[in-house]
# Entry
Amino acid sequence: MKPDINVLGPLMEHLIFGLMYGTLAIARLMDGSHIYLLLYIDDMLIAAKSMSDVNSLKEQLKREFEIKDLGVAKRILGMEIQRDRPAGILYLSQKKYIERVLQRFGMKNSKPMTTPLAARFKLSAADSPQT
# Structure
């Protein structure tokens, strides 16, 4: 089902003004399915059940904007994307980001634990530093 840019027109106006904060636009197609357009600054991700819907929207966007198609997304906003198409599963990982943070703060060789604080401890605002 071809997405209609006229239907997306108001969404496109919203996207242009929402660039600073990131935007999620969802369009419902005539067959009841949805197409998702996620936009953050100059990164865009389009998702739908049908590749033909994705390709149709990309073509319509190319007519309105200068865009560069980088193909199937493997990363966006620091998240790695992996797919298991036969199972219909999408995995998102921030492993590399976490590794960079650990390295930055000298914790790369820290001993991993399931919970950094025992579950029996109850923290309150009074326990927070005052400076």
Notes: The beta strands are 23-28, 34-40, 43-48, 75-76, 79-84, 89-93. The longest strand covers residues 34-40.
